[in-house]
Amino acid sequence: MTTKTRPVGSALGRIYGDARRVERIAYVIGAVLFVSGLVHVGVLLVSGRSWVGPVSLRKAATFGLSFGLTLATVSWVTSFVAMRPRARNLLLGVFSAACVVETVLVTLQAWRGVPSHFNFETSFDNTVSMLLAAGGGVIIVTVLGFTGAALSGASALSPSMRLAVRFGFFVLLVALATGAVMIARGVVEARGGDAQLAYTTAGALKPLHAVAMHAILVLPGLAWLLRFTDWSEQRRTRLVWVAIAADTVLTAIVGAESLDDVSPLAAPVFATIPSALALAVLVATGVAAVRGVLRNSAA
Asked: How many CA within 13 A on the CB side of residue 252?
């Protein structure tokens, strides 16, 4: 990757053109998954179907949107990391396949009108639940591989981008670990005969899972945008550190609320204020970066 500053629009346009073959395939798959999520959002809006519950098409929508965005993001972020071609192809290929399997199985069960997770009613449903759990395990293993590569193969990056990439993968691991805990807790309750409690127990951790899932896009995206300012690398790194601090506070508070089975939308004031401030600071770092880019372009 070149360090020469180029117009943001031109650089965005070249992300796909400069990508390796395996990255391009991941981008295409991610786009297809994302579009599938949008289609299901449209179906929900037009049909008036329920947005809540374990059999809602909302699950097909959220899995398509989330996995599509995550796959494209991971492909883009790992393009900055030095890896052996064979290792890159293997990890990104397996990760892409796992994202497809997870989204397809959840979508299939949603259209069948049965729960996708913690559903052991029939041999087919049991197989789907086990495949979803196994797919989650595969995703965790591949992200561990990417994280290891980011720790050892990012020395050529600028300090701000290196920091953002490494912390982004760390928070992604937090999200995936949360998902694993959700599955484990839900399976225990479902195997114990209380399926409804399984969905309630696992669902309590959804806010933490959601907040932590996309730091891998926000932080490297911020560091990438800062490349188009005329700021010193020291100043860029400081701003990335501010974003990391804000993201850490936000994730920690939402995590504590989730563990206490408290919705972030119904949290007490003493928890809402610091989380709102952390979110505001995180947004402010993005606004500052955009202003820096615009000011540099004008100059």
From this structure: 8
- Please tell me whether residues 58 and 24 are part of one structural domain: yes
Same domain, 20 and 124: yes
User: Tokens 């928890």 belong to which residue?
Assistant: 271
Please count the structural domains in the chain: 2
pLDDT band (50, 70, 90) for residue 198:
low
* pLDDT higher than threshold 90 for residue 196: no
Instruction: Write out the residue range of the structural domain in which residue 150 sits.
Output: 11-156
| Backbone angles phi and psi of 109, in degrees to 5 | -65, -35
Please indicate, yes or no, whether residues 171 and 108 belong to a single structural domain of this protein: no
| Sequence-distant (≥ 6) Cβ neighbours of residue 242 within 8 angstroms | 281, 285
Give the Cα separation of 242 and 218 in Å (integer). 13
Find, among 13, 286, 1, the residue nearest to 154 by Cα. Answer: 1
